[in-house]
Amino acid sequence: MTDLIGFAVILWLIVGTGLVFYFTPVSVGARKMRIIALAAILLCIVFLSTQVSVPMSAGRAFVWIGAPTGGGLRLPYRYGYFILKLWPIFGLVSMTMAAVGPIAYVVKTRADLRHKRGT
Questions:
Q1: Beta bridge partners of 47
Q2: CA geometry: angle at 42 spanning 41 and 48, to 5°?
Q3: 56: which residues sit within 8 A by CB, 6+ positions away?
Q4: CB 36 within 8 A of CB 101
């Protein structure tokens, strides 16, 4: 079931990015919404592809933020603890913005076009 949810999220990110690039912004507000929607999609991809963990070690505890390229960032536990606790919240917020952002952008662009035409 989780593979199907992951597939649906990736599919919506692709469709949402296509919608954002297909509709050209008419107003300054639509341009700003376009930037926010693209940033939210990018952050969602970053949060979906990285992982945060506390690996087992014989020495001091640390928080590992692993990138999909194989590299990563190693933080002392006292600093990384906040990242470890806030990571799911940031991921959920970015995923929500990536889901709603393209829809709001399309609605705003269509409303601006109707207003510009006078209908």
A1: none
A2: 90
A3: none
A4: yes
Amino acid at 53: S
Query: pLDDT tens digits for 6-30?
Result: 788 888 889 989 988 998 888 888 8
Closest by Cα among 36, 22, 26 to 108: 26
24 contacts 107 by C-beta, under 8 angstroms: no
Reported as type and span, the H/E element at residue 18 is helix 2-22
Distance CA 16, CA 34 (A): 11
Q: Comparing C-alpha atoms, which of 36, 45, 47, 49 is closest to residue 12?
A: 45
Burial of 37-46, coded b for 16+ CB within 10 Å and e otherwise, reads bbebbebbbe
CA distance 73 to 2: 27
pLDDT tens digits along 32-68:
989 999 999 988 888 888 888 877 666 777 788 888 7
pTM of the full structure: 0.77
**Beta bridge partners of residue 73, listed in sequence order:** 65
